[in-house]
Amino acid sequence: MANIYLPYLKFFKDPLLIKAELIYALQESRDRCLHQSTKFLSELMMTLKNIPPYFEFENENNEFIRFELEPAFTNLEDYLVYFKARAYYDLEDYPSCAHIAKHTNNSKSMFLHYMARYLSMHNECIYERTNLFDSFKPINMRAYMELLDELLILNVYGSEDDSDEESEDEPQQEASDLDVVNRKHSIQEDDSTPKGRRCSRRPRSLRIEKATTTTLGKKNKITKRNNTAKKVKVTALATQSENNMSSGDHKETRIKREDPYLLWLTAVMLKRIDRCDEAVDILVRAIQIQPCYWGAWIELSTLVKDLHMLDALNLRLNESKEHHWMHLLFIAHMYIDFQITDRALNIYNDIWKLGHTVFQDWPYMQAQLAIAHHNKREIATAIVSFKTVMEMDPFRIDNLDLLSNLMYVCTSPDELVVLSKYVASIDRYRQETLCVLGNMYSLKCDHAKSVLYFKKAVRINPFNVTAWTLLGHEYIEMKNSYAAIISYRQALKINIRDYRAWYGLGQIYELVKLPNYALFYFTHARDLRPRDYRMLVSLGEMFERADRIFESMACFYKALFYDTDGTIMLKLAKFYDKYGDCSNELTREHFNMMNRRALKIGIRNRTTIELNLILSKIYLYLGHYYMDLHYYDRAISLAGKCRDLWKEPETIACQSLGVTEHVTALLAEIEARAGSDSSLAPTPSAIKARRFLFAL
């Protein structure tokens, strides 16, 4: 793993270059009031506080420093406009901010103008929603599309002039003749012309004549935009932007259009109306210009659908062979999202081992390690990691809702109450705090109050996947299947990779006696969490209900190594009891063949000895099961089958001796019980044999 990511890890060995880029990126995010990005970068800057600053501006040959401080305001008016607009923005008076920064060419003021207009629509959508489960779409779609068109024209397509588009289809001679006529018959724009509307400089007669000469197939070519052409143009401009950045020969107007923060805002708006492909292309452009903007990376992570798309994105982002250090954090973040936690842990451990020691004190990285252990169901390790984050920054309550989930699973009401009081004392109205309080009341079986807190969390942030999923869990406890289904589907609309929502939907359809629907959702949950035995057991039970015995046994065999209480062993034993000991010889042979295939599929990369060991435990389990039911003949027969598995010469002596010892103990207990014809207490050797069954 270290060899694969070695080009990235070299930056973590010497964090001087990282701090140099952070200085510029932090100023840009702070000046644009991007609070989450500023928080992330500031946390990293505090981690690197003992690293000396790197201010070698005159070193033009240094290929690692890509950013320069933006020039100061060109005039006093731009300076005053920016700070007045920012004051309104900080007060959340977004209409006033948008109005103040409307006529300006300064990049910071322009961003505040467009961001204020977007947030005004966003807040309107939140405040005007009467039903919590309504689709989270802009209320004034016309104003939303107008703002999006302005951003696309500014950042992607450039200015659209009718004469420019028409001249592409005209001969050069006709264009020169029209220019002569235009100079003779130019019209002036008087007070009756609405402001902001383009007025053509050609006489009306020439425009009508031009319109009548166009063919029917090209009608409305100028007024209508082709969405397919847009996507092609976005991709083409992304490549052109990268070439322009590498050449360094671009004009001032082009630099304004290549503002990475406006590109990010454009992508956010495109994502809201489900134009995800265009949003991905624009985000890649923004990241290539400013790779230290963490908000663009996070937004891009929500648009990655599968691992194939992630690999394609990594190739696009590495075309310049720069191997930016922020890209490695993005890859680890995506691995955690895709539940590939081992790879993510390897990346973070490589940063700790091969990088500078200061990164071990970075709360973000410690929190990511806690989330990775949470996903692996390593509950004790995850709780320790979360408590370490709390010690590093006592007022950092990010991701503490996941810690409350772990305490809920451990059924630790005292610790959960302490955590809820702790986060409530910091900020009672944070979405993480509301989720912690909801878990606390759920553990106390006060589901109505728990639903109330989860609803508050999704009202504050309608894109909180964890809150939607926990709300669905509570509705299941309250037997409200309809509301639970809607809650889970809202979570999947935000993040289709959330296995908890898929699993919750499967549970609901299982409760309402729709096994085929449950099978569909459990299959998706299993694909997202292939090593989670809960998904495998649920999927196996649905296959069993659908009489798909082969698939069911394969799922149970995969989950067998996580069996701690014999539940899965009992399910497999029932198949052996029903089909393996059937009086019909054809049924028996078919089951034995199917059983072997399922065993090899469910337990891959295992030797014959390991497979025989698993079969031995199943036979021993059945032997104890039938002995408890006083079916001594069947129990003796199964003990004989278990002993026959270890007659081959290639079996290992110690393992064969161990199984034979347990078989002898089983036969001895059967003989003792059969002789007394009563249920005797199990002997010590029998107890040892039972423990052997679950030591997989």
UniProtKB/TrEMBL annotation:
GO CC annotation, single: anaphase-promoting complex
Keyword Cell cycle in annotation: yes
Record-linked InterPro entries: APC8 (IPR007192), TPR-like_helical_dom_sf (IPR011990), TPR_rpt (IPR019734)
Comp. bias intervals (Basic and acidic residues): 180-194
Biased composition (Basic residues): 195-204
Biased composition (Acidic residues): 160-172
Region (Disordered): 160-204
GO biological process, one term: protein ubiquitination
Domain Cdc23: residue ranges: 18-121, 209-370
Keywords: Cell cycle, Cell division, Mitosis, Repeat, TPR repeat, Ubl conjugation pathway
Pfam families associated with the record: ANAPC8, TPR_8
Signal peptide residue numbers: none
Highest taxon of source: Eukaryota
Extent of the TPR repeats: 431-464, 465-498, 499-532
Protein name (Swiss-Prot/TrEMBL): Cdc23 domain-containing protein
Upper classification of the organism: Eukaryota, Metazoa, Ecdysozoa, Arthropoda, Hexapoda
